[in-house]
Automatic annotation (TrEMBL), chains A, B:
This is Alanine-glyoxylate aminotransferase. One of its GO terms (molecular function) is L-serine-pyruvate transaminase activity. Its cofactor is pyridoxal 5'-phosphate. It comes from Haloarcula quadrata. Belongs to the class-V pyridoxal-phosphate-dependent aminotransferase family.
Length: 392, 392
């Protein structure tokens, strides 16, 4: 690599992001990203850290002291949660009803834990009775579940029932709220969730890079009394506590700009989180009505429909990838294919944060209708658009 | 946390950053940060990934295929290097002549490795004879050294001698180039470095969040033939390879905006890396001349002076923290205190990337002179400024 490569100006296409994330970023958040930096130990940054922590508490609906952005994308916050709470010798119970339970399992095993599963079909939520049975059989120390499963578009209902079972068995509960935080009702304290993590690029509509994590005192007691150190230095919460806690000691250089952006994204949430949940319900409801009005079928059962991530079954004879490519090429519009067991069977259409707007939904439905028309699918675009606009 | 916290507009102070990082970010890089996002699997982003990888190869002076930005700050790239290359049962040799050798040790232990040390006083580089002796005694599998030690301001000379010793003993070499990449001569291939990692917020003048890492084929062979999985899922290079390599498979959502920024920062490097090294030498040389001309003493010996990070001894009777606070309060100027064993004894003054400019150095010297005057230190500011301007 002797000569310097010739690389031109940064001119990415102007996409409308309706996939499983990232979602469209609010202009105020983009603007915050170009703010000149202060140092990560600057007194003014300490103040910003406090503000972000308070805003995160509000968004998680928690009073947890240990509420921080982890310096990485959502999977970093996920690994911080699992890698610190699960100690070698612990047993973690994980779900098998979606893609992200497998990731939990892999992280728990790498942390030195044993993994047991509670089964449910892909596209269905966990049944509390099955969770109870798994507890009876395996006595796990930690129970992880996915509140909003991005691979299936399923929202886990009855969270307090699940946490009650875990607590009756002296286990800690870790909730994956990557695709729910800030878009779908989530109440960490009221629902008895011990640890929750999320990503910023979903319903918070913030560029990825600093990811929400919260732990209650029970979880932190376990983390701080581990017999062996966490296996990651970078994600060791007992060390991060030195920086985000009272001491403000140097651990690693925080991603300052990403923290700026998260602050701005959370200020938008702080306009009123319940209204924000309602907006997601309303706008995604119009999207769902439009999709169904066209004659397409949702993958997730109505009772467990996840507004922030809509899974739509690919009609017979239609090439899912060709539709995705057509939307990208002709409409600069991103949706995604199925993941894991549902690859080829569904499309995943996000409706998150700044993408959860009527502008985006009406554009998506019109474009999707045309893309399916190109594929010769027997759908009724007009009926879909009419069903959508009734909800607007 | 029922009520939404009241958090105002983001208005951090307008700092001049002359500490150990972050450095001042180039306006073009800040602007890139506010570019709207595309998806992390978008074809246009794949192209950007290729460009960033090529630019990183140019900057590292390497042809290594496995050259990527890790999704986190510099310590994430550090842990990706150590946590993947060191397997349980391996022995890693680390230095004791600065703060970051300890961090290497902690990461190697958490990876399941045994740690042995090669000693040198804080403020001195490693002596090849001592490295050779440590190899004879311990037969380590991996040898880590710090090319540019941010805690002491010492540049490790004679890198090829060190790598020759390691290779003669069939060990892999990991180089910490956090404070050298893009600012100080570093030639990964020519010098026989197997793995190098860095941070973006030092000599690359990019906000932290996506951090350079390169591995040659020998190192990747070891990583890909590990008996046990790496202990971090997030930083597992064999999985990252699926995303950054030919397959382009989803692993985690890349920090898109940080990759945009790194691309722009590296485009500035690609104007000519040797000129950039020269500029750092020249501008930091003026800083050093100015500091010494005032009557202050550098901590690092002249032969091992690190242009990007200048350590200055605190004169007797002067309160190091008061000077730092005065510069921050009166000049919006950041420098840093000593770290670890040198806390209280030195100041650390960065001269990196966009901060390695005459504007910054003349401002720093004038302000530092006034701050020391406030403290009643016997220094000759005019002589310092004259010595500086001779080098301009």
């Amino acid at each position: 690599m002797d000569a310097a490569p010739t690389v031109g100006e940064l001119t990415p296409p102007d996409r409308t992001l309706m996939g499983p994330g990232p979602s469209d970023v609010h202009p105020r958040v983009l603007k915050a990203m170009s703010t000149p930096l202060v140092g990560h130990l600057d007194p003014s940054f300490i103040e910003i850290m406090d503000e972000v922590q308070n805003l995160l508490r509000y968004t998680f609906r928690t009073d947890n002291k240990w509420t921080i952005p982890v310096s990485g994308t959502g999977s970093a916050a996920m690994e911080a949660a699992i890698g610190n709470v699960v100690e070698p010798g612990d047993t973690m119970l994980v779900p098998t009803n979606g893609y992200f339970g497998d990731r939990m399992a892999s992280m728990a095993e790498r942390a030195g834990g044993e993994v047991v599963t509670v089964d449910a079909p892909w596209g269905q939520p966990l049944d509390p009775a099955a969770v109870e049975a798994a507890f009876d059989e395996h006595s796990p120390d930690v129970f992880g579940f996915v509140h909003a499963e991005t691979s299936t578009g399923v929202l886990q209902p009855s969270v307090p029932e699940l946490t009650d079972i875990a607590h009756a068995n002296d286990a800690l509960v870790i909730a994956d709220s990557v695709t729910s935080l800030g878009g779908v009702e989530l109440r960490v304290d009221e629902w008895g969730i011990d640890v929750a993590y999320s990503g910023p690029q979903k319903c918070l509509s913030c560029p990825p890079g600093a990811s929400p994590l919260t732990l209650n005192d029970d979880a932190m007691d376990k983390v701080l009394s581990r017999e062996s150190e966490a296996r990651s230095w970078y994600l060791d919460i007992s060390l991060l506590e030195g920086y985000w806690g009272d001491e403000r000691a140097y651990h690693h250089t925080a991603p300052i700009t990403n923290v700026y952006a998260l602050r701005e994204a959370l200020r938008l949430v702080a306009k009123g989180i319940e209204e924000r949940w309602d907006r997601h319900l309303r706008v995604a409801g119009a999207l769902k009505a439009g999709v169904e009005g066209m004659g397409l079928e949702m993958n997730a059962p109505d009772d467990f429909w996840l507004p922030s991530l809509n899974t739509v079954r690919v009609p017979d004879g239609v090439d899912d990838g060709a539709v995705i490519q057509y939307l990208l090429d002709e409409y600069d519009l991103e949706i995604a294919s199925g993941l894991g067991a549902l690859e080829g069977d569904i499309w995943r259409i996000g409706c998150m944060g700044h993408s959860a707007r009527r502008q985006n939904v009406s554009y998506l439905l019109a474009a999707l209708g045309n893309a399916l028309g190109e594929q010769g699918a027997a759908i009724d675009v007009d009926a879909g658009l009419a069903a959508m606009s009734e909800r607007f």
